[in-house]
Fold each of these.
Amino acid sequence: MDQDHLFGDSPAGAQAPTDSSELVQRLAQLREQLQHHAHLYYTLDAPQIPDAEYDRLFKQLQALEEAHPELRTADSPTQRVLGKVLDGFAAVRHAMPMLSIRTETDTEASGALAFDARVRRELGLSETDPAIEYAAELKFDGLAINLRYEHGVLACAATRGDGEVGEDVTQNIRTIGQIPLRLHGAEPVVLEVRGEVYMRRDDFESLNERQRERGDKTFVNPRNAAAGAVRQLDPAIAAQRPLSFFAYGLGEVRGWDVPATHSALLDALQRMGLPVCAERTVAQGAEGPTGLVAFHRAMGARRDQLPFDIDGVVYKVNSRELQQRLGFVTREPRWAVAHKYPAQEQLTQVESIDIQVGRTGKLTPVARLKRVFVGGVTVTNATLHNLFEMRRKRVRVGDTVIVRRAGDVIPEVVGVVPVEGSAARTPYVPNFHMPRQCPVCASAVVREPGEVNHRCTGGLFCAAQRKQALLHFAQRRAVEVEGLGEKLVDQLVDGALVRTLPELYKLGVAKLAALDRMADKSAQNIVAALEKSKHTTLPRFLYGLGIRHVGEATAKDLARHFGQIDRIMDATEEQLLAVNDVGPIVAKSIRTFFDQPHNREVVEQLRSVGITWVEHEPVQVAQSSLPQAGKTFVLTGTLPSLSREEAKAMIEAAGGKVVGSVSKKTHYVVAGDEAGSKLDKARELGVSVIDEDELRALLHAEPRSDHGGA
Ligand code: IVH
């Protein structure tokens, strides 16, 4: 990062430059820095400065531009989110029509073979001629956008429309952080970049989750969500919809030498700061290890792991010269084709609707479906989320519905196909009702005012909640009890062997081995796994307790802030609110949880069966960047609140090493009560002696109250 030599640290740039050329220079420098860091952050996902530093530079630029509006430029990062609410979008005539490509609908290898054969025929090649080189890339499932850069600055962004005339969506597209407002290192007179605006699946899921929580309409799939955001008339709303972009081609170009191949073109666009998908290759012909068929197969296998939806792959003749020779048929290039994959959405029928009871007692309606193959798996169930969501989608038993399954995401009913002839306005008469009693334990079902979810009030009395609580505690991200899966938990709970978490630890080999299909060896493994799980970390333990609204991240924040479970159990809502990212709902939920005597009892019993935890996960990676990397520590005596294990784990988490004896090379001796000869030795050798508080300060750990350790 360049020095702020002109203005020092003042966010508003208090000492305004005297000379206007100096000011112009400073503005340009700030814009360039911000653009550079936005690219690292949004496109490369590799920020180099903290967010706060970015904000500081941003505010500096904003203040200078406010003082000198005449020096504001269209490519300034401050100009991303400043649009007005529109009545409609202006029409934009494309300088070059936006074409579509022919689609090979057969999802087998033959689609690639047919395309290659056609291209060879059109070019008059014989079998003995060498393979054609293709650029193979993904077919993103979003919407096509034309970005028009004039002299390197984003001037207009338009939708495809009918291919001739699209809509001007510039102010919404500007809010996409990945799209550069100014091209890096190039200022061609005109460069139109074409590509796909899309929404990542995780962004889509969390957007829908937010919509659902607010009782707002959810989106059917990422493509619809992206299309809705791009055509949103209020740019403030568009800015909150998390969109992404991949460049894949060109429109009008003036004053720029277009590279000779498509793959080189994509490389060049990438260098200009445009996001280009890394999943692409240059293929030789259709068959063989580097051919189109191999790419189609490889991407098909990776499809679920990609962070976004694709509906196929695209093959393009790589050489521009050959592309020109091939030309177009009607409105489609002869040199490109889309080769599809099986759909991630299918139609099927709802056979019945069941209720599932979750860990927190939430009742989830689940559609039992006529078996359907979608997104690579056979689906027989799909979540309907809650009663309101179900009503909004107008789902009824017997209806034909659209089921979506993409990535590893749980299959979902996204909508109903209206019965032929019946208008959408037909009154919706639901034929499913939420039960008044929990289908598992018969406790009362309630829905709190303002909540969309129905809940069973049975708590841990409810077998369904108990099972989920055990599974949650035992999962890998929590306390991790290897081998404690659904089938075993069903048997343990249904057979009344385990009612509470601590009872898990009282199971012996004999009881376990007596279960259905449980060999002695497996029983021993479970007991060993339970033993192993007793050494855990505070965040994992906290997360494993299954407190509502306390996810992994919150558990880590709580552990870091309080250091000790007793302090969390006794914290007031106000004290909890002081924790990073803990708001009133979370604080209340934690307080409510620990106000229940049986929850405190569970913690006590877990302690008494021998569970211990350290504050942090031992950190192994990036040792050298840690505060105590390479430092050696010796522990002696009894520390006021840390056990030896805890202190050791904390030191190691900070990159330090704990050794047994003091030498000249020892960096610190941590001394507690009744420290013995090691302390004397440290004094003799002049090694720094510190106490627990100083150790914590050194490791940047929060102090804890002085009563006993966990
Ligand atoms: S090339 C002249 N490449 O698929 C060629 N299109 O009909 C123009 N699409 O709506 C298109 N991924 O938005 C191309 N890697 C890709 C693509 C892609 C998705 C979309 C495009 C258009 C349709 C093609």
Amino acid sequence: MDPGFRRDDICFFVQIMKPTPETLQRLKAIVGDKGFVVGEADMAPHLVERRELYRGKAAAVLKPASVEEVSAAMKVAHEAGLAVVPQGGNTGLVGGQVPDGSGEEIVLSLARMNRVRAIDTENNTLTVDAGVTLAAAQEAAREADRLFPLSLASEGSCQIGGNLATNAGGTQVLRYGNARDLVLGLEVVLANGDVWNGLTGLRKDNTGYDLRHLFMGSEGTLGIITGAVLKLFPRPQSVETAFAAVPDVEAAVKLLRIADGLAGGQVSTFELVPRIGVEFVVAHVEGASDPLPDPSPWYVLIEMTAGTKAAGLPETMEAALAEGLEQGLVSDAAIAQSEAQRADFWRLRESLSDVQREEGGSIKHDVSVPVSRMADFIATATSAVSARLPGVRPVPFGHIGDGNVHFNLSQPVGADKAAFLARWDEMNAIVHGIVREMGGSISAEHGVGQLKRDEIAATKSPVEMAMMRALKQALDPKGVLNPGKVV
Ligand code: FAD
Ligand code: ZN
């Protein structure tokens, strides 16, 4: 057997080879000195993700500067049978962007492809390189008096390519949809180096299969996204933001429907915050304070936006909260009176993920159930994990309007972090079991990566898995793109 042969462990026969010094030289000649990283310190930030759950090694990190360079590099990698791990901003939470421990994979970072290519305010589209950060794409839209509505707490560093490859969700899905709903066209380099230029910007095109959607949520296993045409929207002229105390999750869902009914689709954010989350933020974020005088078991952050100033949003928000108070669904609420107060509400929500680190070990669940089952899910899962591990502190928060909750578990106070984290799979099994019984998803918005690969394979139907493998086989027959992830 060839000494370079490494594994055949994916879903069909693949031969991944170890890169030879000659192949690495060929890659270096394509991307130049600036784009070829092999020094240990320079590679380091690309080899571990932020939670440090996954740490890998690589033969090199490539940073191509153009689609031509990506294409030429993939032709070489494909011919030589090298494994390539596409990487965007490295903010992914399931280990999809991290190479394995062999030291033989190539990380391909899009960081140098960071140009805004074009903006068309009549077609309402923004065309960008895949390595443009989400914050930079939002800013480009804003400068043209438009809105690009995708919004995540990691927006300062995650990239459009990574957002599309994970079909990211975030805090405005309720109104504008997931990343896949915000894309009109793609440019993709395939495993063999061929370039598909699908940057049409068309809003209607029924000429056969919609190939762009294949790459949304494919997590770097089907192709390397190098460019995208994004949908723009009118920039909201009025915004109302409220922080409301609610007695329970059921009341939160009822309040959402009241707000929806009154605001006619103008509710852009409806996020659940538990009391323990507020306490964590107040304890660990400098300058943060409790938004309301009396503690409440649950809260919701509500935002409504409208295209015109005359839309009467302040009255609508007030009416929704008043109706909530009247029906006993709201016990108290504050409406932001200034940009600073709005920013405080948002900071509280956006810090929820980070502050859990300050409280020791945190076992994560990114799950969804039908919105109507949300209250039942949170109650059932809370009882089940507490029965198994007394003292565990559930911190369920997030996108309740989409039926998506981050059902995270903080370790019991004073517990040993390592011993707690060793129970990750056990806790996942309990929570995911309940999710499945309720017809939900065990990965609502973060993807599969390495973290959930085996579980997905064990729970999707054989027909679904066969279709996924057939697509992988068709687009990447040698299995060079992100092996060991997703399928
Ligand atoms: P990376 O982490 O670099 O990569 C993610 C995956 O995409 C990998 O499998 C990688 O191989 C692949 N990939 C990256 N770029 C490309 C490309 N150009 N072509 C092909 N494949 C590629 N996610 C949400 O959905 N909603 C949230 O609300 C949310 N909040 C977050 C909050 C915080 C604080 C953090 C740290 C993360 C959060 N995330 C959230 C997760 C993460 O930010 C998103 O998944 C994001 O879309 C990843 O983008 P990235 O550029 O960092 O991709
Ligand atoms: Zn989220």
